[in-house]
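The records we work with from here on pair a chain with its fold. Each token is a code from a learned vocabulary of local backbone shapes. A record is reproduced here so that you can trace the correspondence yourselves:

_____
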Amino acid sequence: MQDPAGGERRPRRLPAMGFSIILLLCVIGLSQAAIEKIFNGTECVPHSQPWQVGLFEGTQLRCGGVLIDRRWVLTAAHCNGSRYWVRLGEHSLSGLDWTEQIRRSGFSATHPGYHGAQHSHDHDLRLLRLGLPIRITHSVQPLPLPTSCVEAGTRCHISGWGTTNHPWSPFPDRLQCLSLSIVPDTTCQDVFPGRITGNMVCAGGVAGADACQGDSGGPLVCDGVLQGLVSWGSVGPCGQDGIPGVYTKICNYVGWIKTVMRNN
């Protein structure tokens, strides 16, 4: 995983859908292309991240996301496709895990304060409502929202299918995980002067360990709750020493998230 490179983390290519869900699952995972991934992560314990979501447009994996309710997924606002095929319960994208659930997204709500990555990455979050509620299983479960903000130094983890550091296989087939620590706001402001707002939280900064293209919208999990969404980072290669990744600070948005879900 890795995508703090001044921008969003990008898409991955997969084959066309068949006439059944099983065929769709078999076909979609066959090829891999340009999406950013967790950098220097390791393969997650299968289904240890049951809230992890893959958002597909046609045959492309566009972004990550996180299940927060039986019918709602949270992702980054810069993942701005109109509708997605939402894949849950995945570990390997090319093979059947027999735990997959696929839904179609319908209604979506982008935070009203988001004005595009070209202006600012502030308020980089978006809610997607699933056409049908998911079935809660050991492999598909919502992640709780926070009741307080995370403190600097807290050990957290991220997950996704974004770009890795392995030149022979840069786009992992299996979900990658990476542990990293929350960085003090002052440190992050020094790295990105004038660009960090109170709605952002930074993590990482260790050489070779980062989120990357394809990880956008994926979860930053701390003490079992959702504290951030992969948003943006440095201009240049992911995982640069001393340059943390920047995440949307979810504790600031719990009220807005609950209001949207309640009213829609």
User: Anything to note?
Assistant: Residues 2-37, 165-169 have pLDDT under 50 and may be disordered. The chain has three helices and 14 strands. The two ends are 33 Å apart (CA to CA). The CA atoms of residues 58 and 260 lie 27 Å apart.
